[in-house]
């Protein structure tokens, strides 16, 4: 079970990183954008580290307080629960 969770979280984090890259590229081209709730949904599903890293790697969404505060908060709370579940259940 632990290995499956690892691979699922890895895929979600890579997806979060990719979404940040794609949305930043589309923003520069003034094209259709990714919805903001997509970023938060990915973070809630376990891809928060990818979204968080993508925000700073691509300098994307870092001027919006709800991203700067929200994505790290969701990520830390979620991974705290995951650690509790896997280690102390």
Automatic annotation (TrEMBL):
The chain crosses the membrane at residues 6-22, 38-58, 64-87. Keywords: Membrane, Transmembrane, Transmembrane helix. It comes from the Bacteria. This is DUF1294 domain-containing protein. The lineage of its organism: Bacteria, Bacillati, Bacillota, Clostridia, Eubacteriales.
């Amino acid at each position: 079970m632990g290995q499956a969770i690892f691979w699922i979280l890895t895929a979600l984090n890579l997806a979060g990183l990719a979404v940040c890259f794609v949305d930043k590229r589309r923003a520069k081209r003034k094209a259709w954008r990714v919805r903001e709730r997509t970023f938060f949904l990915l973070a809630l599903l376990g891809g928060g580290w990818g979204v968080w890293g993508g925000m700073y790697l691509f300098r994307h969404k870092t001027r919006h307080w709800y991203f700067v505060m929200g994505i790290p908060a969701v990520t830390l709370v979620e991974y705290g629960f995951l650690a509790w579940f896997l280690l102390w259940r």
